[in-house]
Amino acid sequence: MSSKDAKVYVCTQAGCNNKYNRPYRLEQHLLSHLNIKPFPCTWENCCKAYSNKSHLNRHIASVHEKEKKNIIYSCPQCCKTYSNRQNLKKHIRQKHVINLPFVCDCCKAQCRKKHQLSAHMYKHNGVKAFSCEICSKEFVTLYEKKRHMRCHKTYTCDECSSTFNQWSKYQKHRKSEHCAKKYICDECGRAYTQRIHIIRHLKIHSNTENLRRTFACPYSNCFRRYTRNSNLTQHILVKHKKLKHICNICQADYSSQAKLKEHLKIHENGVVPRRKVKSLANGRKHRKDKDTLKVTTALKLAGLTETVLEKCKVFNDTQHE
Fold first, then answer.
1. pTM value?
2. Are the C-beta atoms of residues 102 and 116 closer than 8 Å to each other?
3. Ramachandran assignment for 272, one of left (phi > 0), alpha (psi -120 to 50 degrees), beta (any other)
4. Do 138 and 128 touch, CB atoms closer than 8 A?
5. Which are the contacts of 5, defined by CB distance < 8 A and separation ≥ 6?
6. What is the rounded CA–CA span in Å between residue 24 and residue 52?
7. Where is it localised (predicted)?
8. How are the residues of the chain apportioned to helix, strand and coil, as percentages rounded to the nearest 5?
9. Is 34 strand, coil or helix?
């Protein structure tokens, strides 16, 4: 039996050991425990109801529309007749099953492929027939082994021969290290790899009117203003609509999903995670605005650009001289 057909969805009701290979079949089964039958028969004087629509259709075909359809389901091998197609298929599967090439010596179960028989034998001898050639980890089915082998797959960069164990990390490396920065600012020469980044950067060099454009909070008695609409949206959700991200374990609430994920690491590892402090020695990049005049958001909102501040600085220096 392949892992695709494995019955991994188990009924959680006490005393019931039914298993299914599809989640929707388990959901339909749970309706029988709750005595919920959402599919009643609509024929007159019939009080039957079913938890599955296919069962209702079978009931109508075999009971109410038997004479109307005038269909006989007969076995082609033994000529035995049945009231519906499902019962005929069940009969053929149990009595006239086609002999498959691989047969279990213990329970006579039949399999189409050899690896399916090897996975099936785990039920009898407890031996996992498939193992990883790299780390010797054992698996019940061939599918589980193939899925595990992805962990050992590596991606090597063609430019610098760096090796990565994840495709996403490899792509991130290529974009950050080897992709050409094709968006270059004509004013200051700064280069960017994405168009959205240079659009955001160009607002620094735009005129005073655009610099002073802000997004004000629409709520009364709230005077907060933001230079980005996304920041305003986050402010409204957290401060006014009281949106909280709640931990399912300790009920702690946080203002963002990122803070909640950081908090969940405490429950997983048992220790408070500490952020790694970057320095120039362990990969921190040099500041691109080193030895340049800093312009804060408050100064931008006030309309004071770098050019204006430079003039003020030159004027102050001449006054002191």
1. 0.32
2. yes
3. beta
4. yes
5. 21
6. 11
7. Nucleus
8. 40, 10, 45
9. coil
pLDDT in tens, 29-73: 888 888 888 888 888 888 888 888 888 888 887 777 765 555 567
CATH of the domain spanning 102-152, picked from 3.40.718.10, 3.30.160.60, 3.30.420.140, 3.30.1370.60: 3.30.160.60
Whether residue 39 contacts residue 50, with contact meaning beta carbons closer than 8 Å, is answered with yes
Rounded to whole angstroms, the Cα distance separating 183 from 198 reads: 7
Of the candidates 140, 145, 114, the one whose C-alpha atom is nearest the C-alpha of residue 127 is 140
Question: Closest by alpha carbon to 200, among 209, 303, 190?
Answer: 190
Helix or strand or coil: residue 180? Answer: coil
SS3 187: coil
**Residue spans per domain, the chain:** 3-95, 102-152, 156-209, 244-274
What does the alpha-carbon distance between residue 116 and residue 103 come to, in Å, rounded to a whole number? 10
Q: Both tokens of residue 7?
A: 């019955």
| pLDDT tens figures, 231-278 | 888 888 888 888 888 888 888 888 888 888 888 888 777 665 566 677
Report which residue type is found at 245: H
